[in-house]
Amino acid sequence: MTLVRNPFDAGGYSLAEMTQAINILPNLYSRLGQIGLFRFEGVSQRSVIIEQYEGVLNLLPSVPLGGPATVGTREGRSMRSFALPWIPHDDVILPGDIQGQPALGVFDGADPLVEIMNRKLQLMRRKHAQTREYMEMNALRGIVKDGAGTTLYNYFTEFGLAQISVDFVLGTAGTNVQGKVREVLRAVEDNLLGEAMSSVHALVSREFFDKLIAHPKTEEAYKFYAATGAQPLREDMRRNFPFAGIVFEEYSGTVTLSTKATERLVPASEGIAFPLGTMDTFTTYGGPANLLEAANTMGLPLYARQHLDEKGRWIDLMTEASILPVNKRPRIAIRLQTSN
């Protein structure tokens, strides 16, 4: 959506207009966004209550004041309340940003002020998208981190669950790699717990991928796949290597944290295997904006608004998100590693 109205008109853009604009801009939060693994669900509160029962995490509904409460004290159940992290990000449009551009109304082309606003909104959108990819990638592994790399919640420790890890031992020539893959597939199947899936995918580090395709037990399979499935001398073959029931994909995503440190989304010599085609396992919950007019409304993925300085010296652009990604079956995402 392109903003077409002069921000200096009375009232400028409303919260609804700015929010609609920034949510329609292209979503660039990379691989998990392309896969569509985490579905978004808006909630009307700034926190959620999650109940764990036999390894499955469920969001509890809100009820009217005085209404019957949900019960979570039965044996085998535990409940926790999680605040939705608040992620605000602001920018500003100054006179220098449009200085030297054609003045408003001088030509019939696009308003330079609107163009500047669109560019800044796109940049802000990308930063929020990268943050969401980072949070969802960690939530896939059972952890919630903020943009500074600080662990907010660890679903395994919160609910007393143990993460499943499979060591492929790819540095040993005699390792039965097919047997390792079957171990991963069975672990995923055992922890579906009523969920459905279509296939199993694995995002692995470059170190893991290189050792996998060079292993004596997989090398011939990779050569055959490369020769029949694509043109290895012209195409990048790291995107997918199906082997024994899992599609392995090299994933080298890296983010720059707010601390200016960089962090790999998949640690060296590791990977994460997870099911595709699930119905209700991977969800990102979003709360309403921290604004009076958004209170008690269903949350959106991202909010934006603007404020014109009363003396006309700048325009503040303000964005925010309150999102909490949840892997409701933490043990369904299997940690892959190679210890040698």
Tell me what the structure shows.
- The protein is an alpha+beta fold.
- The chain is built from eight helices and 18 strands.
- The strands form five sheets. A six-stranded mixed beta sheet has the order 8-18-14-9-11-10.
- The longest helix has 29 residues.
- It is globular and about 75 Å long.
- The termini are far apart.
- About 1% of the residues have low confidence.
Q: Mean of the pLDDT scores?
A: 84
Biggest sheet strand order reads: 8-18-14-9-11-10
CATH topology of the largest domain: Major capsid protein gp5 fold
Helix content: 25-40%
How many strands, what sense, and barrel or not for the largest sheet? 6 strands, mixed
Strand content: 25-35%
CATH class of the largest domain: Alpha Beta
Structural class from helices and strands?
alpha+beta
Radius of gyration: 24 Å
Give the end-to-end Cα distance, rounded to a whole number of Å: 50 Å
SSE layout and pairings?
Blueprint: H1 15-24, H2 30-35, E1 39-42, E2 47-53, E3 56-59, E4 77-83, E5 86-93, H3 95-98, H4 112-140, E6 143-145, E7 151-154, H5 155-159, E8 165-167, H6 177-190, E9 199-204, H7 206-214, H8 219-229, E10 241-243, E11 246-250, E12 254-256, E13 262-264, E14 270-276, E15 282-286, E16 303-308, E17 315-327, E18 334-337
Parallel strand pairs: 1-15, 8-18, 9-11
Antiparallel strand pairs: 2-3, 2-4, 5-17, 6-7, 9-14, 10-11, 12-13, 14-18, 15-17, 16-17
Task: Give a brief description.
By secondary structure, this protein is α+β, with helices and mostly antiparallel strands.
Features:
five-stranded mixed beta sheet, capsid protein of prophage fold, 340 residues, alpha+beta, 18 strands, single chain, Major capsid protein gp5 fold
